[in-house]
Amino acid sequence: MAINYTDLLAMLNDVNVSVFYVNKSGEILFHSGEDEAEQKRIGTSIYQYVDDFSEKRLENVIAGKTTQTIGTTDIYMKTNQTSVACFLKYKRDQVNCWLVMIPYPSDYNEMVENVLGTNAELARLFDEKLNLEMELKQKIHELKIASITDPLTKLYNRQYFYEYLFEYLTKDSWSALSIIMIDFNDFKQVNDNYGHKAGDELLIQFAEMIHQHCHMGFRFGGDEFVIISVDHDQSYIKEKLDTISRSFNTQTSIVTLSYGMTFIDQEQRKTINSKADIDYLLKVADEQMYRNKRQVKKNERKKQRGSKGYVNKR
């Protein structure tokens, strides 16, 4: 049985399918609607009947800005005060364009809102995950720093000394490396006479001097410190240590410093393969430090140890 043109248009109208034929400027040349209001659309612009979101998309289709001559997309048709989501099938010829608009089911907008809501929740959870990962990385970094840092002086600790030195020995950017051990003389008198808080302040002040004057410093424990110096000869290091010692003497008239050092060059580094090898270097510096300590005690005049003996000028 043949279906006439009028029946076809009526069927399209019954199922709310709209067919438009428009030119490249968007002027409606044909519309499948049967009633008077629908027919009044002929001669007007198709862009009047879509929302702002869809206008640019539809313009790309009609003006041939898309590479496909036949394709599909989504647009929103304006009806009264609302917009209806439609599936758009288009076919473009050399001059004009056919547009077939099929409304989505009535619950489509709700489905879209649910999907958008789900996407928004997923985006929120993703952002929350990223924030938690960043917080976790920060906490791990803070724990790492705490594990290798002396909590009082904020210098690195003995544990990190080995890690740092092993890593530095693998580099080729240096020619000479010095390990200097420093120990306080008569530090016990400060703790005994003025309390551990005064002793802690003195340790902190000395650590700040290391930060200021040295390449890298470590607190091994108590009043024992290690400094690493890179590419400086013995006379330069001694000059730096004398500067630190003079500065330190402005903080106390009781405690003095003793030090010893050992040196590594690029050839010697090949023999350092274990913690025991580094411990041997520390032993050499430690023995020299104690020889220096005995000499300091032998040469220094007996100092007055009274209530005015310890002076903290902070």
Automatic annotation (TrEMBL):
GO terms for biological process: cell adhesion involved in single-species biofilm formation; negative regulation of bacterial-type flagellum-dependent cell motility. Residues 175-306 form the GGDEF domain. One of its GO terms (cellular component) is plasma membrane. InterPro entries: Diguanylate_Cyclase, GGDEF_dom, Nucleotide_cyclase, Rev_trsase/Diguanyl_cyclase. Pfam families: GGDEF. CDD domains: GGDEF (cd01949). SUPFAM superfamilies: Nucleotide cyclase (SSF55073). GO terms for molecular function: diguanylate cyclase activity. Residues 293-314 are annotated as: Disordered. PROSITE patterns: GGDEF. This is Diguanylate cyclase (GGDEF)-like protein. The lineage of its organism: Bacteria, Bacillati, Bacillota, Bacilli, Bacillales.
